[in-house]
Structure prediction request, 127 residues.
Amino acid sequence: MFQHRHSPGDFKKIISSPFVILLLSGLVFFAAYGTFNIFLKRRGLEDNLESLNAKIRHLETENIFNLKKIDYLTSESGIEKEAKARLNLKSPGENVVVVIPPEKIQQNNDDSDNSFLKKLKSFFQNL
Prediction:
């Protein structure tokens, strides 16, 4: 009934019209722009994922260290060693040797030179 046949020239005219070319160019631009944005987001997410995986590995290592430290500190020998180190305690019958660095000895000697009488003498000389 209604048959309308298009000639090959009609299709070329439609495709080569400025409106269709502009429309197709716009579609290609938006598709390329969207693809590029997706690529950038994916790259950022992959970097973030790698950073988080590195943090997980670090925290797992730290967790293992802390678990070993807890086991050590809950043992009898661990408690004893920590008490000696932090609280300066000693076991019954144990002798403790205190080593004083030479700087401390010199500092104590300098402090004793500033006795009350020397300070008093210095005070009156400066008047």
